[in-house]
Amino acid sequence: MHEVQKKRASKRLLVAALGVATVSYMGCAADSDGTEEDYGSESLAEEAQPTNTAPASAEQSVDKAARINSDSDPQTTLGIQRLPEKFPPSGNLMAPPPPPTGNLMVPPPSGNLMAPPVLGPRVLTPSIPIPPPSGNLMAPPIRELEQLDQLEQIELAR
Amino acid sequence: MNTQSTLGELFELDLFGDAIERRYRRLRPEVETMPWGTLDTSAYPEHVVTAARRAWTGAAFQEHRTGASCALTLKALIEARAPVDLVAVACRFPLDEMVHVELCSRLAMELGGGSEIRYDPHELVYEPSRELSPLLVASELVVHNFCVGEALSIPLLRGASKAAAQPLTRAVLMRIVRDEALHGSFGWSYLAWASEHLSRDDRSHLSELAARSIRGILRNWDALALELRSDPQGRPKAHALGWMQTRDYLTLAARALESKVIAPLMRFGIDPLAHLGGAIEALAPSAGAMPNSEIAV
């Protein structure tokens, strides 16, 4: 650990208990054209019923993993509630939690769900020019500098 | 932080500590004056406490999302050259949201710890198309996040605070309500300025967007409506840990949507109702027991 990091005593503010009431919030293919399918297409009720319709997108893989992770019993999948997607506004609406029917204590993950880090070859991306940082550095205007140079040269010529 | 997995990133948070935390505490001293350590969960069955942990972790996550929404909106307001004093007022909002994130997180920890939320940070909030004009980008974000999200949040948070029986849950919710009052009125101040620059097509575009925002919220409440149909009596005592009975919540939500969101939007020529097809009317439950019926919008 770097020495600077050692000196700082950061504090844990929120620590998640793994397996307790898991919620998967993975966004969706949302808000492209505003059609009904764009948001909330996978409601809580639908979530509890796995379908056989591939293709297995990354999102579906997540759902599948979450289901395997919990239990095949729809009662316990209540804990795997999907927040429908990113489109709803973000305000804290303090909705009551879903009812505590069945076992809300979802078992902790069994099996290796933590993907190993990708150790493939490092990909070097070409450097792309980006705009400079936005801080106000109060540099004198270039035009004025040029004028000052000219004035200086006139003074020197005299 | 090593929280990345195939299931998304785990929602866990830290404080930096030391001088940075002291500076933050000076900015918002009210956080430490909450009655921390007074929460008594002994009267509640374990599944209710677990539900409360999930509810408060979810609240922290929603506040976290709101922080990102406020920051994104702030950038859009600057790009649209909104009036400087209006932008300056909005500068406070991300800080407010970080305070709320801390309050909700600490409450979840007092209940026994956070629940597991996994999410994709790139999909945290709605971002308008960059092909729209700066004014329309700002207008979309303000309508979506403030005229719908924040305006609706206030009466619901107030209702939850009145239903909360524990001093800590009530104090936290009241604090959030006090901050959010300014957030809720901000959208209307923005529209009072932007209105004269918005064309008929812009208003039509914003009407559709507002309907999508509202429908997105209604979708999130589908599970509550299902619950109400299966258990119309509600759950005694559970609301003491910080949320309202389902029937009260949905009744209040329907009323608040109409009076605090749709009616003010229509005054600015933004009409989401045409795109909602009776969804609001379907939200309000039929008459029945009203355990928290003293709650008004």
SSE blueprint and pairings:
The complex is a heterodimer of chains A (158) and B (297).
Chain A: H1 3-7, E1 11-14, E2 23-25, H2 44-47, H3 58-70, E3 81-82, H4 142-157
Parallel strand pairs in A: 2-3
Chain B: E1 9-10, E2 13-15, H1 18-27, H2 46-79, H3 84-90, H4 92-110, E3 117-119, H5 134-163, H6 167-194, H7 200-220, H8 222-230, H9 246-267, H10 279-283
Antiparallel strand pairs in B: 1-3
Helix pairs in contact in B: 2-4, 2-5, 4-6, 5-6, 5-7, 5-9
Shape descriptor of chain A: elongated
For the residues shown, what is the average pLDDT of chain B?
86
The structure class of chain B reads mainly alpha
Q: Name the average pLDDT of chain A.
A: 50
Tell me the distance between the termini of chain B.
42 Å
Number of strands of chain A: 3
Helix content of chain A: 10-25%
Q: Strand portion of chain A, in percent?
A: 5-15%
Order of helices and strands of chain A: HEEHHEH
Which stretches of chain B are low in confidence, meaning pLDDT under 50 for 5 or more residues running?
A: 287-297
Question: What proportion of the residues of chain B form beta strands (DSSP E)?
Answer: under 5%
One letter per element, helices H and strands E, the order of chain B comes to: EEHHHHEHHHHHH
Task: Report the sheet with the most strands of chain B, covering strand number, pairing sense and barrel closure.
Answer: 2 strands, antiparallel
Helix proportion range of chain B: 55-70%
- The side-by-side strand order for the widest beta sheet of chain B comes to 1-3
Overall body shape of chain B: globular
**How large, in whole angstroms, is the Cα Rg of chain B?**
20 Å
Distance between the termini of chain A: 64 Å
